[in-house]
Amino acid sequence: MTTFYRALILIAFVLAAPSAFASDLPADMMLSAPDGWEARRPAVPFSHTLHDRLDPGQCATCHHEWDGSGQPASCSSSGCHDQQGRREARSFYRAFHDRSDQRSCVGCHSTARRAGSTDVPVSCGDCHVRN
Fold first, then answer.
1. Exposed, middle or buried by CB within 10 Å (0-12, 13-18, 19+), for 95?
2. How far apart are CA 14 and CA 18, in angstroms?
3. Can you name the residues that pair with 45 across neighbouring β-strands?
4. What share of the chain is helix, strand, coil (3-state, %, to 5)?
5. N or C: more exposed end of the chain, with fewer CB within 10 A?
6. Total Cβ atoms within 10 A of residue 59
7. pLDDT tens-place values along the chain, 131 residues long
8. 47, 9 contact by CB (below 8 A)
């Protein structure tokens, strides 16, 4: 993981603390495989605040089944991305790693990189951080 990306995550967490009380955005979090599932890599820090600043109010881009009322369901909720394999259409893995889907982290970040953004993580080690 690059020093720049680590600093970006730290800044996002620091800046998010005061704004978490002023908005309905969920707290910044660590994305990890559901309990009982084998994970090959460490959890990924995720900042709702940072992503909302980059694309304000577009929660339904990632939470694509959410109708805008109440809290969106977790990605691993029953009936959403609750399959364990990598290739299954509703797999938890594909929800984050499908290069051809703009709703996935890797798909969106790859598109941003191709568009010229140099500060979005695109390699495994840029996102999956070891403590």
1. buried
2. 8
3. 30
4. 35, 5, 55
5. C
6. 18
7. 565 555 445 555 545 444 433 357 788 999 999 888 988 999 999 999 999 998 898 888 889 888 888 888 888 888 889 888 888 888 999 999 999 998 999 999 999 999 999 999 999 999 998 87
8. yes
